[in-house]
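Quick log. Single chain, no ligands specified.
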Amino acid sequence: MWNKKKIREQEEAERKKLNNAEESQILKRKTIKELIAPSGIDASKIDHLEIISNVKRYARSFFVSTLPRMCTFPELFRDLYFFGDINTSIYITPVPESRSQNELNKTINELETERIVAADRGRINRESTLAQKRFEAEQLRDEIAAGFNKMYEASVIATLFTYNMDDLERLTKLLATEMSKSLVGIRSAWAMQEEAFQSNLPFLNDKIKKNHDFDSRSMGTVFPFTTSEVGHSTGIPLGFNKQTGTPILFDNFHPSLTNYNMVIFAKSGAGKSVTMKTLISRSSVLMGIESLALDAEGEYTIVAESLGGINVVLSPNSKTVINLFDIEPENVKDEITGRERTVVNVENKVEDVTQALITMAKGSTRSDEVNEITKQVIAESVSEEYASLGITSDPKSLYKKSTVQRGDKLYREKKEMPTIGSWYKRIERKAEQNTNKDYSFHYSYLLKVMKQYIREYNGQMAYFDGQSTFELLDGSPFINLDISQLEERFARPLAQQILLSWIWEKFVKKNSEDRGKARMKRVIVDEAWMLLPYPEAVDFLNTMARRARKRNVSLAIISQRFQDFYENSEVQAVLTSSDTKLFLAQDKSEIQYIKEVFKLSDGEANFLITCLKGEGLLKVGSDTAILQIVPTAKEFEFVDTNLNSIVKRNQMKNNQV
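-> predicted structure:
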């Protein structure tokens, strides 16, 4: 019995010893390579690899086979760095001076021998080429001997990844074509895919060694580090390039821009308002640009006061009235004669007013009761309103026939325009006279829902009913239309749409009256995301973005919800019609959409998540720079909207007094 027990103990001890040995072997095999490796790689194919993980991927590795005679920075390997899902490794080995001297001397002797043979055979072109190569080799040898240059060997390996074989074949051909444009030849690592793939991993082990010779100057063209400079030779100092420390001059109306519009996207508190106020104030003082802002949050009042501009407050209790029906003449070019003439575009104005009235009729609930018949009823009545006053395409039709004497001169008074109230009365009359049952419902619906906009019925939103109570003064440096006291969910977006139409007539069109002065104007739509749920408002915004450049006007869109722009395909024209884009700090939930639409790199996207207030990414055309905006101490007094900062500055002033 004792012997059996002892035998069992010995067997147990041996079993533990074997287990420990196996565990030790397993731990020894768990290298860093195995820990980061995917589930498996199928290297049985001769021209690609299949990476087996959660999702199957395909990889093909290449090496650079030929290089151009002259290397250009940064074009040499640009596509190997930025061509889709691709990894690139470059192994650089300095060549000892003694070896490079010997090899160059050998090359010089070979070239001279070939030149002599070519001369004896009468091959003049060949002789000339060999003589030039020999001269370059001698020059390089002398530079290395003097310590001004150095030789290197470099092997360039790239691996392209896709999720299916068709894409891999297609992108392989495309990559070869793109690289050939810069005279760089690439070859698939045929029968060496596994070795090439391992060479392109971060283990510093080049297993294929397809080397090329570089000197110091040509070696410098290989590195992908470039600094983008953005800016113009004229303009205002917008901020500093964080990468170079140089100031960025920005000219919103520079001839190099395809359009003058700009968009600014940032999360709350990132510095959108400070940036725009800095831009408004500096461009007004230094360039004479006249700006007008649709102020949704009441932040631009102090700017208007500081610049000696105009501040207009629109609220349920104010006596300010803006008439949606106001119309102004404009200059247009005759398609036949090419001459400019002044006209009143009643047709376009009818469409603009109709779109605004449809938004009103749909209300905050965006009712489905409004359809094409409703639109037709509205449009016909709007057109009849202008026709009843004799307003046609002739600019003289905007004025009364009678004249008024002021001093020694006679003036013709302008006619009073139609109003929402007069339009509503016309709808009432037409409803009474209507005999078409198909129209009865729509007349009835309009009479019910539009009553809230009529002053005669004490409508709670009647601030757009009546003749306009003020005119925009030409030459004012800044005009602020403050709508912050209106209800946010519907009244503000409605006000934005109506005011945009009114601004087009009163502010933008006037820029076409005297083109000799080349007046530069800017229209700022703050918190533009409010407009997006309303299709008619978005349509007008798109139209304005497309037509602004012809009138030397810049439309500036400011918003904190880029996702809304991304998901609303109707507003894409605003983005495509804006040559200047500024992205300040972004929320993580928004960055993926911005990255996709504007083709940002991973580094740029990560920067926008982590950057500080006042820092951002400025894209002007195809150029990009990291921008830091730093207002002066004096500017901070009216551009900073942080309540804590304002209180602190006031306390410091009081203490000084």
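The chain has a mean pLDDT of 85.
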